[in-house]
Amino acid sequence: MTPAILKTQLSSDENLSFSVIIPAYNEEQLLPATLTSLHKAMDTLGLQGEVIIVDNNSTDNTAQIAKDHGAKVVFEPFRQIAKARNRGAGIARSNIFIFLDADTILPPQLLQKSLQLLASGNYCGGG
Q1: pTM of the predicted model, to two decimals?
Q2: Which end of the chain has the smaller Cβ count within 10 Å, N or C?
Q3: DSSP E strand stretches across the chain
Q4: All residues at 6 or more sequence positions from 14 whose CB lies less than 8 Å from its CB, including other chains
């Protein structure tokens, strides 16, 4: 599937194809590698995506690291991963969500395949 077809099938915001939502609690050590790999994967797509970090009441530099890597940061004070994911989804500007853990290295091929499957209409999620 080409990026143009994928974009038209995924987009709720005409300039945005997908949202990556990452809940994070005290992840200053692992988050930089996650965000670096994520941006590399996103750069291979030819699509516009957003990265949302949900700072789940961290006591370290998680939020600042996320901002330094160009992510949108939202705060969720209640420390529960489902609550954090929902908070991120609530501010996402697209209708396609990719949820990652803050210590996940996402290969470009996996991101592309996930988006293709979601765009097909035959899948609504995976793990």
Answers
A1: 0.89
A2: C
A3: 18-24, 49-55, 72-75, 97-99
A4: none
